[in-house]
Amino acid sequence: MKKFYKIIVMLLFGATILYAGDGLSQPHLVSTIPSLNDDNVPPNTTLSFTFDSTIVENSIKPHTITLKQKEPSKHKIKGNISVVNKNTLVFSPQQQLEKGVYDIKIKSLKLKDPDTNEIKPKTKWQKFIAWLCGLVYDDINDCPLCQYVCDLQKHTKTKAIKYMFEVKDDAPKVTSIIASQTLIELSEHNSTQLSITATYDNNNSEDITQKATYTSSDSSVADVDKGLVSTFKEGSTTLEVSYGGKNITITVEVYEMIEGHLLPHKPQDPDATLLGVDKNNNGVRDEVERWIYKDMPTYHHPEIERVIAMQQAKAYQLNLSDVNNTNDIPIDAVNRGIDCWAYYIRSKQIPFNESYISMDKYLAKLQDKVFNTKERLKTYFQFNKNLGIRVFTDTQETVNNCDTDIDLLP
User: What is residue 152's DSSP assignment?
Assistant: First the structure.
């Protein structure tokens, strides 16, 4: 009979352990997914734990969250830990959870508590000072000496969390997830909406934009919330999207915009090769393009002058890439740029004594920027030498010589 009662007690104890949780009723913990009362957790669950204060991210370690399957087999579940919206700790399993019982453990975390000014003496010396202040002050927090010597508690520590949950159904498994965009290029302080679709092993598809988990490698450049990507400053970052054990990455390039023009990023080594770096493939080296829009002196109509400078810089770059002047394409491009500037002077009725002085300065500064190394300068001289004695016919100074219709610009 005793053996029978012992079995009953053990069964009740096991049931209690299975669904009882430690640390789930603590202060600051707002919600958990899955919750303790979930009677059927889906296999594609992403675990999340939301607090009412900001999580101190350096308190998160690789083993802060541990997920293990207890039944039918015992093994650890691998996954990615991240913080979403500053106050939610997320664990994304690398594969869907199989049918069985799982044990989840979350170690103690630090939460930011900027409004807390409570003095917490720790060392013997601090405790002595606190005792001394207590003889004079009703509240040791008012004691200047203790404020100076004792520690000021700026963080709140959570209690460890431990509970178990069960996955009962073998739901369709996610075979892949895809994003509507894999490369996002935006200006600063802009936004765009992503769409994420999951495909299951039963060939059904689902829009999981609102369900997926998102993390940004550099949230100061761009961040994402439920698929909405928001940009903040120039730079590059990657977004990781996780759902049902599947992960994809999305590249986000954020550019500075001037006069509607997206500037390429500053190149790391712009003078390593003759032709340099042209990431946006517009024919102008990136550092030259940045100089034109950020630092180039302008004289009368800045937007027009920058547009013409881009055309001329592209022509000069052809002098470097085609030193033999194949089919006169490079020299024709140079002459068209000069003729475009001449048309600009005439069409805007810029006084003669100002126009050609500014033109000479403009060309000289642009050439200095484009042909800025010995190798580039030597190549440019070779290009001019290869022209030999040539006779070039005058071209008409019309807007047709401009790659952009400057008559439409202010």
Answer: B
